[in-house]
Sequence to fold (225 residues):
Amino acid sequence: MPGVVEGNDLGTYVIKFHGAGQGPKALVAEVIVGELFRRLGLRVPELKLIELDPAIGKSEPDFEIQELLIRSAGLNLAVDFLPGSFGYDGSAGNPGDEAMARILWLDAYVANVDRSWRNTNMLVWHKNLWLIDHGAALYFHHSWMSAEKFASLPYDASDHVFSVAVSGVAKVDAELTAAITPELLTEVIGLVPDEWLGEGDRERYLAHLLARLENRAAWIPGGAQ
Fold:
């Protein structure tokens, strides 16, 4: 259950609570995936950390919301609110073959299972496509399956909103593979606050993502070339 808040910088943000649903791991995925995608040229709303005062929850009349706010005291994730944006439904056309192929490749890489026509998790804002809601990606961290197992997990692109771009994935494969370096992954993983991680988690994320990159023949839509 996200909420819309005004920060002390006077910006408006959608706040995602560490005390909700999947807990802080969903926020970890939001940060790692969102910031990785941003650095690879895709548009993602600005992400910030926001401190939630526990006193806010005590004055909330709705019991369920009050519980959520109290559980979420401390650091939470704030996503820049895009006023006037609307959900992408394809009616205004697609973003182009290369952009669709890049998004499909990257979703397959991070095992993002939540970008279908039922819920595209994309917004159109000022005629540009923005990617949102990546909390369902990196699902290996819920049980910490081995890096080797995650590396070999296939990706079913048949339900992806840009499944039509599968034939173009091979054209962006070499560029994206070369761009995702250990240094880049270390940088984006380093943006996750310590409060949301367990001991050794940063190293685990890095190992899993590097292993999957090295074994992309197992999951790349359309097959690696």
The longest helix spans residues 24-39. The beta strands are 3-6, 12-16, 47-52, 74-80, 86-87, 122-125, 128-131.
